[in-house]
Every structure is written in structure tokens, then in C-alpha cells.
UniProtKB/TrEMBL annotation:
The protein's name: ABC transporter ATP-binding protein
UniProt source species: Dokdonella koreensis DS-123
Source organism, top-level taxon: Bacteria
Residue ranges constituting the ABC transporter domain according to the UniProt record: 8-234
GO molecular function, one term: ATP hydrolysis activity
Keyword set, alphabetical order: ATP-binding, Nodulation, Nucleotide-binding, Transport
Length: 303
């Protein structure tokens, strides 16, 4: 059964490619509205999840619903309710921008010229240009403008800024953030760029080896990760004995611990290991997510 309050609902969803398990009994519910970021290390299963949700691949087990519809039974009308932009920006290079727009206008009954103009206005794209002549950043902007002009209920962005320079990334984010069409739909944004996630996301979903590891606001996730600096003599405690350890580094004679889900009792632990001074400091999203992902990414996979 699917619930209309959720744009995405998966129940025990698994996807196997031969011996490789890309999605592992994933239970995921993404509520309607706002911007949801999906992050995970390379190979965590993000693109596979999108392919299954959009009906491009069948699940190996479990169920997947998107906008309340079974992903395996999406009709053209259902697809019209979903905008999709990925890093490949796959429009054919020979076609003119105005021809693409004419085609999409015919294809999508809810085509919104104003939404297209609002987004494409951030880019210096001329109607007579061929898609292949556009810069990568302009092509990304054109794809975003086309997807939003569909008036989608759900916009899925799979690493839309991959390969773009800093200026083009900023232009992409701003055209998304200031678009009134984007405000009216639910956005699922998948990226490795934490500064982008930090700017746009209301909800942070972390996938690891095809399983859900976090679903909270980015701020709440950051609050789970703390950085401690301690003046511990000699070798310090064995890493395996440090509670919640994500990373440890020794810099200028001081130990830096990045830990998960620890409170003030962690200071007592460090003191019990001989620390003379202990200091804690907050952590930004980039450090928190990357520390979290790096720990388990480096660990050997269970058989
Ligand atoms: N067509 C395929 N055949 C075999 N294995 C695949 C195939 N596509 C993906 N995989 C494997 O499934 C796992 C998940 O891949 P997926 O592309 O979904 O990850 P991802 O999170 O999108 O990674 P990235 O951030 O690198 O894009 C990986 O281990 C990958 O090797």
C-alpha cells in the first residue's frame, strides 16, 4: 500500500546485479514537499535507487512506489509528473534549443512557459544554439529549466552539477533555489558536494551499501558528530576502545577524535585514558558526513 503523503516509499527493496547487492532490503519513506538530499559513498546504491524508482530497472525483491504509483507500472502520465535531471544531460547535441522547447511543450500538458523563462534566464542560452554548442553549465541549466517547466510534482536531480566549475555550480543552485516552480514541488537531490547539500537540503538521507543510515535535518546529523582534541600522553587509547570513533588523527602532539553520538561522558573517557586537556568543537556538514561515510566505506564488506 502507498501513502499519498510520501513521494517515495520503498519496502524491503533489494536490487541485485549478479552477485552484487546494490540495494539491501531498503525501507525508505520520503515525505511530500521540500528538498531532500541523498548522499552516500560511491557505489552506495543511489543511482540504482533512482533507476528502480523511475521504472528503468525492476527490483529483485520488495516494492517501490513513486508519487503513490508502483514504479514498475508507471504510465506516460505518471512520468509527466516527475522531472528528472542527471549528470549526463542526455539531449542530442544536434538539436536546437528552440526545437527542444517546442517538443517538450507538446509533450507535457502542464508545460509552464514562465517557469522555463525564469530558470533559463540565469544562463546566456540563445534559442538558435544547438545543444552540443552549449557549455556544460548551460546544458545543466537547460535541463533544469525543461524539467521545471513540466510543472512536476517531484523533481529528481541525480548529481546534476557533476563536472561543473564553481561558477556554473553556483548558477545551477541559484536557478534552482530561486525558481518558484521548484518551490511548488518536492525535490530529491543526490550529490557528493556537501556545500551544495548544506545550502539547499531540508532533509539529509544517507545511504550506505544499499541501506538507510540516516534521515534527519542536516543540522541534527551534524549535532551527532563531534570533534574532540585531547592532550593524551604516549599512544592514546586503542582505536577499537574509543566509543563511536569515526576518525583519529595526531597533529602537533594532540589527538583529534571525530566521534558519533557521544556526549560529555566522552571527555571523561579521554581523561580516564590520561588526557590532560580535553576540548570539544562542533563540526560542519562536510566533515560530519565524510567522516561518517569514510569509516564504513573503508571497512571490509560483510560476506
Ligand atoms: N549494471 C550493473 N551491473 C553490475 N553492477 C552494477 C551495475 N550498476 C551498478 N552496479 C553496482 O551496484 C552498486 C551500486 O551502484 P550505484 O551506481 O547505484 O551507486 P551510486 O551510489 O550511484 O554510486 P556513485 O556515487 O559512484 O554514482 C555498485 O557496487 C556498483 O558496482
Amino acid at each position: 500500500m502507498s501513502d499519498p503523503d510520501y513521494v517515495v516509499q520503498t519496502v524491503a527493496l533489494s536490487k541485485r546485479y549478479g552477485r552484487k547487492l546494490a540495494l539491501d532490503r531498503l525501507d525508505l519513506q520520503i515525505p511530500r514537499g521540500r528538498i531532500h538530499a541523498i548522499v552516500g559513498a560511491n557505489g552506495a546504491g543511489k543511482s540504482t535507487l533512482f533507476r528502480v524508482l523511475l521504472g528503468f530497472l525492476p527490483p529483485s525483491a520488495g516494492t517501490a512506489h513513486i508519487l503513490g504509483r508502483d514504479s514498475q507500472r508507471l504510465t506516460p502520465a505518471d512520468r509527466g509528473r516527475i522531472g528528472f535531471v542527471n549528470e549526463e544531460h542526455t539531449l542530442p547535441g544536434w538539436v536546437r534549443v528552440d526545437a527542444v522547447v517546442r517538443m517538450q511543450r507538446r509533450l507535457y500538458p502542464r508545460w509552464n512557459e514562465g517557469a522555463f523563462a525564469e530558470v533559463i534566464g540565469h544562463y546566456h542560452v540563445l534559442p538558435e544554439q544547438r545543444v552540443g554548442q552549449l557549455s556544460r553549465g548551460e546544458r545543466a541549466g537547460l535541463n533544469l529549466a525543461l524539467a521545471l517547466a513540466q510543472s512536476p510534482e517531484l523533481l529528481v536531480l541525480d548529481e546534476p552539477t557533476l563536472g561543473l566549475d564553481v561558477v556554473a555550480k553556483r548558477a545551477f543552485l541559484e536557478s534552482l533555489m530561486y525558481s518558484s516552480a521548484a518551490e511548488r514541488c518536492t525535490v530529491i537531490y543526490c550529490s557528493h558536494q556537501m556545500e551544495e547539500i548544506e545550502r539547499v537540503a531540508d532533509n539529509l538521507i544517507i545511504l550506505e551499501r544499499g541501506q538507510l543510515k540516516n534521515m534527519s535535518t542536516p543540522e541534527d546529523f551534524c549535532a551527532r558528530v563531534t570533534h574532540w582534541v585531547a592532550d593524551v600522553p604516549f599512544k592514546g587509547p586503542e582505536p577499537a576502545a574509543v566509543p563511536g570513533l569515526l576518525q583519529v588523527q595526531r597533529l602537533d602532539g594532540l589527538y583529534h577524535y571525530l566521534v558519533l553520538d557521544q556526549d560529555e561522558t566522552f571527555a571523561e573517557f579521554l581523561r580516564s585514558c590520561g588526557a590532560r586537556s580535553v576540548q570539544s568543537m562542533p563540526v560542519g556538514l562536510d566533515r560530519a558526513v565524510n567522516g561518517f561515510l569514510a569509516k564504513n566505506h573503508a571497512a571490509p564488506a560483510a560476506a
